[in-house]
Amino acid sequence: MITRRTAIKYSSLSVAALATGIPFSQRSFSLNTFPNVRPPLKQRKFISDAVEAAIQNVSGSIDDDELRWLFGNCYPNTLDTTVETGTRNNKPDTFVITGDIHAMWLRDSSAQVWPYIPLTKEDKQLQSMIAGVIHRQSYCITIDPYANAFNKAKEGSYWEKDLTEMKKELHERKWEIDSLCYPIRLAYGYWKTTGDTSVFDAEWRQAMQLVLKTFREQQRMNVLGPYKFQRETHVAYDTVPFGGYGNPTKKIGLIHSMFRPSDDACIFPYLIPSNYFAVVSLKQLSEITSSGVNDTALAKESRELAEEIESVLKRYAVHDHLRYGKIFAYEIDGYGNAFFMDDANVPSLLSMPYLHACDGSDPVYQNTRRFLLSNDNPYFYKGSAAEGIGGPHVGTDMIWHLGITMRALTSSDDDEIRSCLTMLKATHAGTGFMHESFHKNDPKNFTRGWFAWANTLFGELIVKIHSERPHILKGTL
Fold this sequence. Notes:
16 strands, 3-stranded antiparallel beta sheet, 4-stranded antiparallel beta sheet, Glycosyltransferase, alpha+beta
């Protein structure tokens, strides 16, 4: 059993069959030969002509053989290994597993297919597949807007004994603000690219009403709300204190989040990057419902809630740091207490420009970024193999590929981007894929050899560099 909590360590070779479907006995990992590590055509879950053409186009501009190989493996990994297509109610229905866990996270599934949205105009099958993800996410939210991960049907979960309102359709029920933001981001990006409004059906509108209801409930202005969570575990950050409602807060209008996008419990329940993400998502929802759906009431409610949260963030999100001046806190409680750190999972403070939550040139963000990428961030690790942000989820000295990739995605400095590419190239441990995390001194000591989000985000980075800074891809790293 592989779970996000067990933090299983893999060697560079033992995970070969996980990410590719190719038997280990048939594979070689000599970096001199760069073997074909994608699944055979007949074993791929979904094939997109537009994605395959993009791989050929971008690969032609990459001089570094190993980097080109990595891109060709990682960019299509979500389609190759995690997409399960079908129909429900005569509409596309796409279940997207996260990789080595057969469950669909609202966050991960959105992020996994996000890099393919620009290609939907030229590939109708790809467009239909992503429409199916949006339909499936809407359905999931109507089942339970507080759940973070879902089963394909009613097969139940090994988390059924959690002390919360579990259902057979749920894989896990950790309340995370971003779980409701990512489906809006995906639907918005899809709509702006394709112009297709068919995904905004009655079920989608019901789901969006639940998003607003849940955000309002978790402002907890007068009552604690319906959600609580506890788990019988020896891992402190896998359960929630104070009867499952979290540490005390002063009610200031921000949304409480019991868990971070890493699925780790928050220390202070006002998770700042997730509240900023909510502002962006609510504004996008308001635009969809005013222009794409013509639901003026929902548009007005979304816009007003976004403005309300944004005004509170302006008052409470920025704090004075002893060394870096004014920076964004990661978590606060409304009483004046703030937690200075970052976690590699997105939304993070580092990722705020990527999510359009702030401008990358903003002085507060730049101060924050200097802090995040320093030893003053308790979860920034620097070793002989690489440096980067990790988090509590898999332990000390474990750097996340997501963190290195996001550093490059939010950088405007060629040298910094090259440095990130060099580290990513040096830490895949011979597998040809990105991982959840790896030890700062030993890339062969890593977790989750089949983690599709990390793979497709890396692919997104290479596509972005190809489009905006193609000179970086010239020469050998």
